[in-house]
Request: fold
Amino acid sequence: MAKTGSPWWTPHRHADRRQGLLSRGRIKAALRAHFEALGFVEVECGALAASPGNEAHLAGFATESIDQDGSRRTLYLHTSPEFAAKKLLAAGETRIFDFARVFRNREQGPLHVAEFTMLEWYRVAEPYTAVIADTLDFLRLAATTTGAASFAYRDRVCDPRAEAERLTVAEAFARHAGVDLLATLDGQGQGNREVLAEAARVAGHDVADNDTWADIFSKIIVTIEPQLGQGRPTVLCEYPRCEAALARAAAHDPRVSERFELYVCGVELANGFGELTDPIEQRARFEAEMAEMQRLYGERYPIDEDFLAALAIMPEACGVALGFDRLVMLATGSRTVADVLWTPAP
Reply:
């Protein structure tokens, strides 16, 4: 799609954007101070990686490294600092955060850009409820920093200071889609395609003959997401294990995982986990994700063997990836994430 309007660097455009950009800096400073007061260490994970990540729907940018002897190898710009950050946890760090520049291909729109800032943080030996609390604290802190009484996006409004709604994915499917999600999972959280397809059709959702369980799940959840985080934030939790490649199983129900997402005004702001630390299970999940990527997009990414080796000695931990640009967009009342980027990508 061709871009219209004046370039972002024209003086009048920059003047319109400048207050939001200055607020971006103030929000970052406030979050950094909050982390440091809690004893977190700021780290800087490198952007070049052996693998950009191993989730079926994440597309990376590839580049080529040329060694002194002229040999060449493919490297990738990371889609998240997660692999590197977890290596730091294996090395002995216990509370870390990173305002990481990350890169994702095939992403463009009001809420998506190819290069953006992901705020990612980890706590060792703490329950994942601790990072959920962190995430809600950051909503309030961003609102206080900009003086926003509420956040708004399109026709939706949310009070960032209100007590969050806690909703499991199964509850959301029942309430907003008329589907009993848990009835479609086996004892280990793997989906039964035919059971979900029938439940979806009965509830009035479109199902194609070649849709997999994951395809149907995705079709339904995108209809649910706009209804979340209205009036107050929504913490959507307990994703099926087959939809949480990097999260450990929930202790109370092996069908679901310790994964949550935070929604505000229908916008997904954060994705967090009680981290999986079993390298054997992690490899199996990565291989399944890459098989799905091959089916959908005709390509796959290598598995970072160094990451799996580090995972074997990594302690129990929880972590979150938060879309920092989206948080700034909401806290400043901006229309798109590009409006709060100092230099949007070409």
Q: What stands out?
A: The radius of gyration is 20 Å.
